[in-house]
């Protein structure tokens, strides 16, 4: 089938079979496919609503085209979200990654530049002094040494370049936002991820289950935030081996104070880097509470604690002991040194 046929089928509100989505995904990654056709397909799919099998098929094709990485053996976790909630929050999961690694969790965080936000994880990391363009060997060395690394999606997925252009032109969330957390080149044992789609957590959790995650949590926060939010009730789905378990939580349920979304507004990369530093330096605020909420759920996801309140306590300790900030400083030092070595070579 040609791209136009798939567009027409989706525009008629028909779901694609797994095999059909495999075919159309390969067409999207084909350099000769018309960019307008890719845009039309992504918009039609977004309007129809993506199914678990469509998401899993695209993730499978995208991983098949990705850079092959010789990742070290270990019990790794990713905590990146899908983005696309248009709520202009600061970089919560990137901040939480340092909190998690500060207490010994091994985090391989997949990320990108801004597409639907004011500052993506890569933008804010660069503002902190962590370059995105160190080679993959150095990136894996960082993972072994510090238990934390950041994988820049365009480096890992070179075929995304044309599609990235289309996504920026569209300017809103598409299936590729849903795909980001699913295409980490490091083999993940556990995963904590957020989506900006209420009522979709169980569907997305079933994709993670299909992809072999032993344990995972999917969150859709209050007001459709792609993180656990202080602004109200949060919807979750837990993947625990063969089980899919839905649950909900408010901040009050875990001993935190509610706060509106406006209390965690972010800005550009430099402004968000400043917010991150104030959180990691222990300044108490809704920014701080949002980070410990999400890092606490991360600790529960990877099994380091037996419940979320324990996870929040561990996250608080990671920050107030200085471990999370030390982790940030260690990653900055390592990546700067790696960058210098690459320049010399």
Give the topology.
Blueprint: H1 3-11, H2 18-28, H3 35-48, H4 52-64, E1 76-78, H5 92-102, E2 106-111, H6 121-128, H7 136-146, E3 148-152, H8 153-156, H9 160-170, H10 175-179, E4 188-194, H11 201-210, E5 215-220, E6 234-240, E7 243-249, H12 269-280, H13 286-301, H14 308-320, H15 323-344
Parallel strand pairs: 1-2, 1-4, 2-3, 4-5
Antiparallel strand pairs: 5-6, 6-7
List keywords for this structure.
Glycosyl_Trfase_fam3; 345 residues; 2 domains; 7-stranded mixed beta sheet; Pyrimidine Nucleoside Phosphorylase, Chain A, domain 2; alpha/beta; 49% helix; transferase; Anthranilate phosphoribosyltransferase
* Beta-strand percentage range: 5-15%
The CATH superfamily of the largest domain bears the name: Nucleoside phosphorylase/phosphoribosyltransferase catalytic domain
Counting structural domains, the number is 2
* Average pLDDT score: 92
Strand order of the largest sheet: 3-2-1-4-5-6-7
**Pattern of helices and strands:** HHHHEHEHHEHHHEHEEEHHHH
How many strands? 7
């Amino acid at each position: 089938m040609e791209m136009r046929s798939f567009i027409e089928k989706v525009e008629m509100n028909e779901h694609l079979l797994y095999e059909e989505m495999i075919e159309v995904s390969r067409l999207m990654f084909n350099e000769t496919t018309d960019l307008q056709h890719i845009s039309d397909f992504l918009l039609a799919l977004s309007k129809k609503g993506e199914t678990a099998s469509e998401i899993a098929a695209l993730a499978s094709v995208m991983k098949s085209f990705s850079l092959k990485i010789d990742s070290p053996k270990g019990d790794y976790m990713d905590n990146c979200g899908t983005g696309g909630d248009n709520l202009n929050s600061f970089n919560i999961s990137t901040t939480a990654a340092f909190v998690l690694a500060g207490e010994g969790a091994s985090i391989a965080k997949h990320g990108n530049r801004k597409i639907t936000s004011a500052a993506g994880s890569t933008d804010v990391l660069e503002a902190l002094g962590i370059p995105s363009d160190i080679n993959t060997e150095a990136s894996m060395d960082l993972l072994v040494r510090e238990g934390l690394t950041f994988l820049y999606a365009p480096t890992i997925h070179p075929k995304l370049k044309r599609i990235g252009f289309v996504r920026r032109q569209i300017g809103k969330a598409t299936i590729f936002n849903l795909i980001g957390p699913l295409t980490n080149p490091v083999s993940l044992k556990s995963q904590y991820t957020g989506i900006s789609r209420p009522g979709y957590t169980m569907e997305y959790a079933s994709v993670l289950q299909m992809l072999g995650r032993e344990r995972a949590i999917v969150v859709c926060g209050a007001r459709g935030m792609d993180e656990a939010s202080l602004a109200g009730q949060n919807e979750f789905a837990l993947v625990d081996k063969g089980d899919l378990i839905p649950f909900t939580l408010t901040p009050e349920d875990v001993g935190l104070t509610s706060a509106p979304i406006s209390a965690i507004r972010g800005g550009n990369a430099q402004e968000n880097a400043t917010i991150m530093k104030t959180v990691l330096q222990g300044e108490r605020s809704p920014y701080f509470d949002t980070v410990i909420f999400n890092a606490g759920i991360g600790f529960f996801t990877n099994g380091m604690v037996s419940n979320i309140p324990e996870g929040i306590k561990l996250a608080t300790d990671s920050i107030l002991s200085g471990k999370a900030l030390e982790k940030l400083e260690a990653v900055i030092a390592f990546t700067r040194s790696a960058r210098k070595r690459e320049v010399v070579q």
